[in-house]
Design brief:
alpha/beta, Alpha-Beta Plaits, 5-stranded mixed sheet, 22 strands, globular
């Protein structure tokens, strides 16, 4: 296990600028976010909650004086450090699998020394006995469809995903019952000779409904039940925090969001949560921004069930102002995307005629309870809400500092270019992320039958498919969603398309000037653009670290997307890129022909982007799968590249986040040293129940 780089998500200056009421609101919302920890751990692995209990028990046994504990246990300081590295990584990833990549990590400290470390504290010793073997057990190597090498807690019981016909029929049954999958898990078992499936729904309410399966012939000899009450204790605690937060909400919209969210958590009804999301989008420029619920489906092998997350951020007015300026002129740049007609009648059939500028803010993270802390987000994750009501973009400024502090993949850049790459990378990366969020996730029109015999296009005279020149012959049916149709490909294709949009538009002078990059600035537009295309090569190769050659599975949606983009550029940009691999020196280098960066690179990105966009807009999963799986296939040459990439893999990050606490009638903020000890202390003082 690599030693983590610990970074502090500093938020004190932003928090101190809040009013007393806003601080109280932020405090209770942060408490609600952290109360979701055990839900996430339960979604990660069977042993994860036990590992958390063990780490916290060990901390309390010595009150954070780890050296004293090591001396008492008679273990060397370097062995103690190995445990602290593991504990900080576990806490920062909310589990014993990396949030980015989904690979399992195990302690470097031996079982013997870890047992000695816990020997003087009876509660810790007992907790360790229950999870010791699972902590070190390999396989499973990662998260994914259940197999000898992978595990998931989204699908429980023997061979839960063994029958594709069963799974498809259950999905259809849930669709007929208006049950959204995001807050569910599935459990398969045998009872009285029958094959049974329980749909476990997250809720405080505990009740069971047995379905009549007559409408699904494949399920006629099976028992299908909806079992409410999954994560019941955690959701009840979250609702208590939300009720307290509601007293300090700044406006009626925030109160409504909290009420609908609580009702959804109490009853398990995601239509109530969707109602909350629609109102959340309309809450413009809040002094405290929040996200809470079952949000991201990255870790579900089928791509439809979502991990819980809780986020509380404090917007930065100065940085937000620049993002708002971009949002206000973003429609100009939508018109430059490859599927937009740009005629007087609108933008064509595959884009909304009017781009409604989203709420776009830069915020400092106060609390980010998730397995992966992203630099930016675009929510809600319901495309119908995005298209009909709107969406929000948030860039997390104190998370972005982490990207500024390290230059990932520097070893893949020619030595003569490394200094310039190091100096320019963050600047192009920041704009890439911004464009990814606002225009990558914020553009496009899904052709759909909105309700029975009501379409958002003319099905008798369907638009021409620019890829074939013929009328489109597929679209979304009533009740169908992007994730439901595209399943396991939905998240990675969505992220790939968003990354392509950001890279495709990064040369626009109006965008670069907005961020201060002109021919008069220290960093010139040409340097920034070149760096972007170099990053596409570096990140494409880096993505191979999250590919498992044994199972041929990708562990991270973004990594697969980056590799697919680079593979397309290698095949389609007329030798713009070159990759040099020296196995003797374990050196891998990617080079870009700077003279032809835009002439060859941008058209190639446009061709890939157009295909993914049309497939996405028309629900064309068949052609999308053929195209994308071919691009993300890892051949023998790429496997050789992967060996070198893994040898030079960047050290993992661990984030040290602040806590808030009540001091009389006031809310105080406590930040911690950016060390493994600081990470552990912050979690020990977080009051995880």
């Amino acid at each position: 296990m690599d030693v983590p780089v610990v970074l502090q998500l500093s938020v004190a200056s932003a928090f101190n600028g809040l009013t007393k009421q806003e601080k109280l609101y932020a405090h209770y919302m942060a408490k609600a976010a952290w109360r979701g920890t055990r839900i996430i751990l339960r979604q990660v692995s069977p042993e994860a909650n036990g590992i958390l209990d063990f780490i916290l028990a060990l901390y309390r046994s010595c009150k954070g004086d780890w050296e004293r504990l090591a001396t008492t246990a008679n273990i060397a300081p370097e062995e103690l450090e190995k445990f602290l590295d593991y504990a900080a990584l576990f806490l920062s990833n909310n589990g014993n699998y990396f949030g980015s990549g989904d690979q399992k990590f195990v302690p470097d400290i031996s079982k013997e020394y870890l047992t000695k470390l816990a020997s003087s504290h009876s509660p810790a010793r007992k907790l360790l006995a229950h999870i010791l073997d699972e902590m070190y057990q390999m396989p499973p190597h990662g998260l994914g469809s259940p197999s000898p090498l992978y595990q998931t807690t989204y699908y429980l019981g023997d061979d839960c995903l063994g029958s594709q016909d069963d799974i498809s029929s259950i999905s259809k049954l849930m669709e007929d019952q208006s049950l959204h999958p995001e807050n569910t898990r599935l459990h398969r078992y045998q009872e009285s000779g029958f094959d049974c499936y329980d749909i476990l729904q997250a809720s405080v309410d505990e009740s069971t409904v047995t379905f009549n399966n007559n409408g699904q012939p494949w399920l006629s000899n099976k028992i299908i039940r909806l079992v409410r009450g999954d994560h019941e204790q955690e959701l009840e605690q979250i609702c208590k925090c939300l009720r307290r937060a509601s007293k300090y909400a700044s406006n009626p919209a925030q109160k409504q969001v909290l009420q609908y969210t609580m009702d959804s958590f109490l009853l398990g009804d995601l239509e109530l949560y969707r109602s909350a999301q629609k109102i959340w989008v309309t809450d413009k420029a809040p002094s405290v921004e929040t996200v809470l619920g079952f949000v991201e489906p990255y870790r579900d092998p089928l791509g439809v069930r979502a991990e819980f997350e809780g986020i509380v951020g404090i917007p930065d007015p100065i940085a937000t102002e620049r993002l708002k300026k971009l949002a206000s002129v973003a429609d100009t740049f939508v018109s430059k995307l490859p599927w937009v007609d740009g005629d007087a009648n609108g933008k064509g059939p595959f884009e909304r005629d009017i781009f409604d500028p989203p709420e776009f803010s830069s915020a400092h993270i106060l609390a980010y309870c998730s397995s992966n802390i992203f630099p930016g987000i675009n929510l809600p994750n319901y495309n119908d809400i995005r298209q009909e009501v709107g969406y929000k973009n948030i860039i997390f400024s104190n998370r972005m500092v982490a990207e500024k502090a390290r230059t990932r993949g520097l070893h893949m850049v020619s030595e003569s270019e490394q200094e310039k790459y190091r100096n320019h990378r963050f600047h192009s990366y920041y704009i890439w992320v911004v464009l990814h969020e606002i225009l990558g996730h914020g553009t496009g029109k899904f052709l759909a039958e909105v309700s029975e015999d009501r379409y958002n296009f003319d099905p008798r005279n369907p638009p021409l498919n620019p890829l074939t020149g013929s009328p489109v012959d597929c679209w979304y049916g009533v009740g169908q969603t992007w994730t439901g149709v595209f399943g396991d490909l939905a998240t990675t294709v969505d992220e790939c398309r968003a990354e392509l949009v950001g890279a495709y538009l990064i040369d626009e002078p109006g965008i670069l000037a907005l961020f201060g990059y002109t021919e008069e600035s220290d960093i010139k537009p040409g340097d920034l653009i070149y760096n972007m295309y170099l990053q596409l090569g570096v990140d494409g190769l880096r993505g191979l670290a999250n590919y498992d050659p044994v199972t041929q599975n990708w562990g991270q949606a973004h990594s697969r997307a980056h590799y697919a983009i680079f593979r397309h550029l290698l095949r389609d940009s007329d030798d713009l890129y070159a990759v040099y691999c020296d196995h003797q020196t374990r050196k891998l280098t990617v080079q870009v022909d700077r003279r032809n960066t835009l002439q060859k690179g941008k058209p190639s990105l446009g061709r890939m982007l157009l295909k993914l966009h049309i497939y996405r807009c028309t629900a064309d999963i068949s052609n999308c799968r053929e195209f994308y799986e071919a691009l993300s296939n890892v051949d023998d040459e790429a496997l050789r590249w992967r060996e070198v990439v893994v040898d030079h893999k960047d050290p993992p990050l661990a984030f040290c986040q602040a806590n808030t606490y009540l001091h009389g009638q006031d809310v105080k903020l406590k930040e911690y040293e950016p060390t493994t000890r600081g990470v552990i202390q912050s979690w020990a003082e977080r009051e995880i129940l």
